[in-house]
Design goal:
mainly alpha; about 150 residues; single chain
């Protein structure tokens, strides 16, 4: 509709020279404007398409970063859990070892003192009993010290 003139023109060969130039200039101007509008519409559509693609790539990149952060967080939690379990197991093993050492030493001390009593190495049974009691106190102190070091 924009390209049609309101009046129906005669073929350009039948128009006077001035009208023919004016008609050709109008047609050329309209054609140029139409070409410009088409070029602008194409450029706008292309720019919008590039913008949508850039936004899609940006969103995809953001999602990948979130997934990577979640994976890293899960790895960190598992590593910390494993370290805590290893530490707890090591502490438990150390406590068991120290408890076994304390029990073993107490048994050895008692056995030595009982052997001394039986062999008659001590002057009297009361002195041996006092020495056994002192050994028991020393063992209790040492046991407390060992258990204190093991964190039990």
């Amino acid at each position: 509709a924009k390209f049609r003139s309101e009046r129906v023109p005669k073929p350009s060969s039948e128009l006077p020279e001035e009208e023919r130039r004016q008609f050709l200039s109008e047609v050329t101007e309209r054609g140029t404007k139409a070409v410009q509008r088409i070029a602008q519409a194409r450029a706008k559509a292309e720019a919008e398409s590039r913008l949508r693609e850039a936004q899609r790539v940006l969103e995809e990149s953001r999602r990948e970063e979130e997934r990577a952060a979640k994976v890293e967080e899960e790895r960190r939690r598992r590593r910390e859990s494993a370290e805590a379990a290893t530490g707890a197991a090591a502490a438990e093993a150390a406590a068991s070892h120290f408890a076994a050492v304390v029990i073993q030493q107490r048994y050895r001390y008692k056995r030595r003192h009982q052997a001394r009593l039986k062999a008659g190495l001590k002057a009297s049974a009361a002195a041996a009993a006092a020495e056994t009691a002192a050994a028991d106190v020393a063992l209790a102190v040492e046991e407390e010290w060992l258990l204190g070091r093991s964190g039990v």
